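FORM 12-B: Structure-to-Sequence Request
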């Protein structure tokens, strides 16, 4: 996956392992992620604590699993919400054109004018620091990407001969969109969705890292990295390494799968993943 040509199979396995840890980890390794045990603080990985403990004696494997559950719950929500609203905006702008296209795209351009992370941080601060506001901020930044891509696809599709034929046969705009436009934009949604999935995990971790996402004692990978940074330089590497590895694997796997999906769906790629 990380050497030579990226493998979709390896990326899929990485994501499946992380999903399994998120779903079954808290059940099998049933410990309280917020339980403080000062006597067990800063213990290296061992049989009792496979990923070690942090400065408060909390089991890192438990917190890693709960952090995976949080990230892998929010990321799909961002993908679905962004695809729905962004796709709706893009289709309306691309199919109906005119004033709706001008107004909607200017709004999307205004959102795109801000760096995504800065905008997500601003939304989080405005709504109040926490996981929910961080998720809303990430969703907002993902909408213009979908809108721009779907509008481009809709503009290309609406000028094709079969669309003209459907109009000549009396098909209305709603039927044309449902029967002839939507099926052709699904590949774009799939590729963009895979990219947004990785972006969501990375941005959620970044917001947690700067203190705007999940707040302690909530287990979240970015927050765990922040809490462990001061101990990494004194030799307690495991506090930062494991949540950092989780972010790295999840984001890399999502990006590899996005590339492979695009290769399969793009005719110019020859259908090879």
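FORM 12-B RESPONSE
SEQUENCE OUT:
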């Amino acid at each position: 996956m990380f050497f030579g040509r990226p493998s979709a199979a390896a990326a899929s396995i990485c994501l499946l392992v992380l999903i399994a840890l998120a779903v079954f980890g808290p059940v099998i390794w049933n410990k309280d992620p917020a339980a403080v045990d000062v006597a067990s603080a800063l213990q290296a990985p061992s049989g009792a604590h496979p990923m070690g403990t942090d400065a408060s004696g909390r089991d890192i494997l438990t917190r890693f699993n709960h952090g995976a559950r949080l990230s892998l719950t929010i990321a799909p929500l961002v993908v679905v919400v962004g695809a729905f609203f962004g796709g709706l905006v893009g289709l309306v702008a691309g199919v109906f054109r005119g004033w709706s296209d001008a107004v909607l795209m200017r709004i999307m351009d205004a959102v795109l004018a801000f760096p995504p992370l800065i905008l997500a941080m601003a939304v989080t601060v405005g709504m109040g620091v926490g996981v929910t506001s961080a998720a809303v901020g990430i969703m907002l930044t993902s909408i213009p990407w979908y809108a721009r891509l779907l509008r481009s696809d809709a503009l290309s599709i609406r000028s094709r001969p079969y669309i003209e034929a459907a109009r000549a046969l009396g098909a209305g705009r709603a039927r044309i969109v449902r029967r002839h436009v939507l099926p052709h934009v699904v590949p774009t949604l799939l590729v963009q969705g895979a990219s947004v999935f990785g972006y969501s995990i990375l941005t959620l971790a970044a917001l947690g890292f700067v203190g705007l996402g999940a707040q302690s004692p909530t287990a979240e990978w970015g927050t765990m990295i922040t809490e462990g940074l001061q101990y990494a330089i004194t030799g307690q590497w495991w506090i930062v390494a494991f949540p950092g590895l989780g972010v790295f694997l999840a984001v890399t796997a999502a990006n590899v799968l996005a590339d492979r999906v695009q290769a399969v769906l793009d005719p110019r790629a020859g259908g090879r993943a």
